[in-house]
Amino acid sequence: HYASHFSSGRAESVRIFIDARCVRASRSGIGWATESMVLALAGLDPANQIFALHLRRSPLEKCSRPNIHPLQTLIDYEWHPLAELFAELVLPRLANRLVCDVFWGPAFAVPTRSTPFPKVVTVHDLTMFTNPRDYPLLFATYMRWQVARSVRAADAVVCPSEYTRRHLIEKWPHLTKCSHVVPMGVAEELRRPSWASPNLPSLPQNYILTIGGGLPRKNAPFGAH
What we know:
Blueprint: H1 2-7, E1 15-19, H2 29-44, E2 49-54, E3 68-72, H3 82-97, E4 102-105, E5 119-122, H4 127-130, H5 137-153, E6 156-159, H6 162-171, E7 179-181
Parallel strand pairs: 1-2, 1-4, 2-3, 4-5, 5-6, 6-7
């Protein structure tokens, strides 16, 4: 799905620059999703070239795909304000030097300066606006600022659900035509028959399994309403 947005109307291969610094050794859900999508993009068409920027000790260091080109940096995206200066001044130049066709920010952020290539940003949710109390005050304020500036600068905004896209358009109506819903896929390991275990506990016929945290923004108790 992501590749269809990146390469729509193109017959030749696509060179994609990905700010994959969220793919850490101790990564969150967004880091896991980004790692999976980097591998999926590379496997979709061997002619596509993927330039994945990562931190030291990232799982991407050991990637053996010939069309994935890991690029290591020491600048953590949580080092503020150095991270913002790095994103604005260094990343666009690096992507341009690599003659990339598109820049993808999989974790809410893209450079806001004008670039010769289009920029795609993934906005996973808007809980920094709807559930700010789930975050430290300064972090919630920073995330609201970061998301707002990134969606204004991006050529396309990708959301994992229609729910998120609808809330996005309510806040920024100009995103109606350039926002897209691209649902998360299912890992291949979960499609294998061997994944099912005979030792599962007794469960009702209908149930919902949630593996996220228990914070209010996760909306885990929604079934009780």
